[in-house]
Design a protein that fits this description.
Blueprint lengths: L4 H20 L4 H4 L2 H6 L11 H11 L3 E10 L2 E9 L5 E7 L5 E6 L17 H11 L4 E9 L2 E10 L2 E8 L5 E6 L3
Antiparallel strand pairs: 1-2, 2-3, 3-4, 4-5, 5-6, 6-7, 7-8
Length: 186
């Protein structure tokens, strides 16, 4: 049977419409929410590493915000789960979770207000406590904060606004002691 040009185009359009309709109407949105990123990095989880669902659930337990994205990234050849969270006040926080265990490797936000509370683990002071310490040390407003490991120590870093420019204040995340305060001019 010989297909005419018209029949060929009709068949191609029908197939295209079927493909588009399958992709536009997911059967279960919650189950498919993070599907795209998991297919980018197929993982059979042979070594009991954290799955994307485990990482999302871990951060959901720690926060009262809404997780808007999660994907596997690499930091210095090590896989991490990068999770983007919108806090209840509406600030965005990027959180890196270890691929190998339920632990936070870093958190960062430059969107105010910082009136929410996050605690990387029971071993560290909470963000609220860290900001209280900063406000007792200086009357300047926090513009950005970050939790991460520097050498062998875990720190909160705060960027503050001053008349002369930006200043950075570092806090030990375990003890709450101020490590250093660097002032930068414009």
């Amino acid at each position: 049977m010989h297909m005419t040009r018209k029949n060929y185009h009709q068949t191609a359009i029908l197939i295209l419409l079927m493909l588009i309709s399958q992709n536009c109407i997911p059967e279960n949105f919650d189950a498919d929410k993070y599907k795209e990123t998991t297919f980018n990095f197929p993982d059979t989880n042979k070594n009991n590493h954290l799955s994307i669902v485990d990482a999302v659930n871990f951060i959901s337990e720690k926060s009262h915000g809404e997780i808007v994205s999660a994907e596997k990234k690499f930091r210095k050849d090590n896989p991490v789960w990068e999770i983007n969270l919108i806090t209840e006040p509406g600030s965005a926080v990027k959180i890196e979770v270890s691929y190998f265990e339920r632990s936070v490797l870093s958190m960062i936000s430059d969107e105010t207000p910082f009136t929410y509370d996050l605690r990387p683990s029971e071993n560290f002071i909470s963000l609220t406590e860290a900001i209280r310490i900063v406000s007792e040390h200086t009357q300047q407003n926090v513009m950005k904060w970050k939790f991460h490991k520097v050498k062998d120590n875990w720190e909160y870093n705060f960027w503050l606004f001053t008349k002369s420019g930006k200043a950075q204040l570092r806090l030990n995340a375990e003890s709450g002691e101020i490590i250093s305060s660097k002032k930068k001019s414009k």
